[in-house]
Amino acid sequence: MIDKNGLHEKAIDLAMHSIGEKTKSVSEDYWRLNYHISTPAFWMNDPNGFSLFKGEYHLFYQHHPYSSKWGPMFWGHVKSEDLVFWEHCPIALAPSEKYDQDGCFSGSAIEKDGLLYLLYTGNVWTGPDYDKDLKQTQCLAVSKDGVYFNKISENPVIASGPNGDVHPHHFRDPKLWKHKDYYYCVLGSRTLDHHGQVLLYRSVDLKTWEFINVMAKSQGDLGYMWECPDFFHLENQDILIMSPQGMEPVDYLYHNLHQAGYVNGKLNYETGELNHGDFELLDYGFDFYAPQTMEDKKGRRIMVAWMAMWESEMPEQQHNWAGAMTIPRQLIIHDKKIKSLPIPEIEKLRKDHVMYQNIMVQGEHKFADLSGDSYELEVIIDAQDALFFGLKVRVCEELNQETLIVYDRLKNMLELNRDRSGNGPKGSRKAPVKLYNNKLHLRIFIDKSSIEIFINNGEKVMSARIYPNQKSKDIYFFSDREIQLKEINKWNLEKSVPISLF
Ligand code: FRU
Fold first, then answer.
1. Is the CA virtual torsion 397, 402, 405, 411 positive or negative?
2. Is the Cβ–Cβ distance between 27 and 467 less than 8 Å?
3. Which atom of ligand 1 approaches the CA of 70 most closely?
4. H or E, element range at 52
5. Which positions are annotated as active-site residues?
6. 229: cis peptide before it, omega within 30°?
7. Which atom of ligand 1 is nearest to the CA of 310?
8. What is the tens place of the pLDDT at every residue in 122-137?
9. What is the rounded CA–CA span in Å between residue 409 and residue 414?
10. Does domain 7-342 have CATH number 2.115.10.20?
């Protein structure tokens, strides 16, 4: 263990002080989320170190504790017993050593011999161009209690990337898992001529690492860099998740600055190669990046992602915070594709149930007792002969605000449109969606400044940040011809992420 001079501890204390000063004013912002994880103050990006340790779930995140903009990265930390009710913990990692002086970048966590280990990327800028002048190494920190971490004296444990067609500097975001006698990690990388790829390493003790192979790489159509890889085995499939930077839009796909998705296949642990199928998105909305997964107490695969997008406008920055996580989603496999479902535990937050059945709608319809800004809404719509139908949430007629969800029957597309959502970024995203028995099933999660739509039992998901006025609470259904609202269930959802630091 190092930190002889207490540099790491001091850096954490100073950062905690900085956050502490802003927590109260941040908590007064209307857009603060009720049941989504965000920082007590200032900036967050990727989920890191999502893990189960001594019966509790830990989620760390990329954090800049001095501003609502990205900067030298720390690791913020929350923990939970049930993945629903979270508590804030002290900052876990701060840049304090030569090898991580400009940031403790993304990484993951694993339990070994009763200790919690974090494997993360130490980032050092070697010149003014952040794209070229950087040195990235992989470093290990360890904790007995899952709260206070020490960086080990052998750091960095992977001091440089392998030889071959591997970019020497863009080398980051290790994701750990155990398989038989070895620990493995995948690392985000790119080739020398800028095609995204993922590297596979193995170790017996987490300290000495052996490069096995390039696990998978872009053949030219999947971007210039793959960030934040994740790998797991689920229902007889090997899944590689990655976040490709720089994919070009194709038709309705890939309109966000960067993408997040997966390929499905079979890993040969000896050669280190993944034989896999096509790239699929994990979310079709605006704000979803760098997802990370872990296996929970029940053996389920749970995913959380950063519910934001690089370079997107974030109006909450005016109020000294930025970014949030998606709700935890359970991944299951259906027809070799991933479905993402809200974890059932989230139902603990439900209250004030309102239900309607078999209501015919043509034109526009508003239910007097359906409204809100922190709720789950489940709807099953029988399309009958309608060509366009859907609903509007976070509506205020007087302010001309609405967030639109519309199904186009001829194109089989569901559109999420935030042009009139309020403040913040605008635009529309589309997902290909089929009707089953002529029906569309949606579960919509609204929090104060977010929307997540789970379509047809998790076949597709669309997530976005939206920034409506607090008056914008109405819900409307609409259709060009008659539709039947077979079922509507709405529950308000309680707060489960506290405002305060401890
Ligand atoms: C992804 C990412 C990672 C990096 C981290 C830095 O969003 O760019 O590749 O480790 O953010 O905060």
1. positive
2. no
3. 12
4. strand 42-53
5. 46
6. no
7. 7
8. 999 999 999 899 999 9
9. 9
10. yes
Q: What is the pLDDT of residue 2?
A: 61
Ligand 1 atom having least distance to the Cα of 73: 12
Cβ of 228 below 6 Å from ligand 1: yes
* pLDDT, tens only, 155-171: 999 999 999 999 999 99
Ligand 1, from 75, 134, 170, 172: best to mutate by most atoms within 8 Å of Cβ?
A: 172
- In angstroms, rounded to a whole number, what is the distance separating the alpha carbons of residues 330 and 361? 33
Would you place residue 380 in the very low, low, confident or very high pLDDT band (cuts 50, 70, 90)?
very high
Closest to 229 (Cα-Cα) out of 218, 407, 220: 218
Q: Is 290 in the pocket of ligand 1 (CB under 6 A)?
A: yes
Q: What is the β-pairing status of strands 42-53 and 321-322? A: parallel
Distance CA 73, CA 121 (A): 10
Mutate to test the pocket of ligand 1, among 60, 102, 228 (most ligand atoms within 8 A of CB): 228
Using alpha carbons only, what angle is made at residue 73 by residues 69 and 76, rounded to the nearest 5 degrees? Answer: 95
Kindly report, as residue ranges, where domains of CATH 2.115.10.20 are found in the chain: 7-342
User: Which pTM value belongs to this model?
Assistant: 0.98
Q: Which amino acid is at 60?
A: F
Class of domain 348-493: mainly beta
Is the CB of 123 within 6 Å of ligand 1?
A: no
Reply yes or no on whether the pLDDT at 1 is more than 90.
no
Query: Which segments of the chain belong to CATH 2.60.120.560?
Result: 348-493
Pairwise CA distance, residues 230 & 267, whole Å: 13
Ordered DSSP codes for 384-414: TT-SEEEEEEEEETTTTEEEEEEEETTTTEE
**Pocket of ligand 1 contains residue 36 by CB under 6 Å:** no
Q: DSSP assignment, residue 41?
A: S
Amino acid (one-letter) located at 39:
T
At 359, which helix (H) or strand (E)? strand 350-371
The DSSP call for residue 254 is: -
Chain position carrying tokens 């993304």? 106
Q: State the Cα torsion 460-465-468-473 to the nearest 10°.
A: 40
Specify whether the CB–CB gap between 138 and 187 falls below 8 A: yes
296 Cα: distance to centroid of ligand 1 (angstroms): 24
